[in-house]
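Format notes (please read before filing issues)

Several people have asked whether sequences and structure tokens are stored in separate files. They are not. Every record keeps both together, in the order shown below: the sequence lines, then the token lines. Line labels are part of the format and must not be stripped during preprocessing.
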Amino acid sequence: MGMKLLDLVFPRRCPVCHDPVDVPGCLICRSCEGKLSFVSGPTCFKCGKEITDAGRELCRDCERLARPFSRSFALLNYDDTARSSILRFKNGGRREYADYYAEKFMELYGEALREAGIEAVVPVPIHADRRYERGYNQAAEFGRGLARALQIPMREDLLSRVRMSGQQKSLSAAARARDIASSLKASDEAALFRRILLVDDVYTTGGTLSACARTLQKAGTREIVCAVIGIGSER
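Then the structure lines:
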């Protein structure tokens, strides 16, 4: 079935207004892309969020917290528009939004990722029960588009979630980090890759990405670079 016929039978939804796109074959409505707030400089060199002072290299969080990843790139400021889009992508079955996120991410950061010498894409894992409920891992859907554009493998088998994490809201930051770390397991094959691109949907405190990065490094990966769709503002 040709692409145009597919678009007519199964119209692609816009990741902003959530209606069928106004031009068949496009990934987003022409009038909707301008409603998204894309991350722009100056940004924290470590986590990638926007910072207010161009004279600083790091945001306040990254100044006081050690991050095991070398740096992170973020596509969208996590405002109400981005939150609505990502929640539908994550919990509303709109896995097609990943195509737009990945395409736009490569438009903004493709050159930097290629220069970084990334050898494999690894999505932040979710537990099998959670994957069964959603039907997919949203980080893997996003990562697949990046891997395809970078022409490198995506390896979901290198990092797994061996148990469900506890209720994070009631835990301190240190307790959250320990809880996440204890739920992760890396394959010995992680040591085959010097640089891995670790992908997730949203960067909040950085705890999940940090726990995943440390787990991969303990297994032998030398360097972790991160990519996320949405990121919060500097507090």
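For reference, the curators noted about this record: The radius of gyration is 18 Å. The mean pLDDT is 92.
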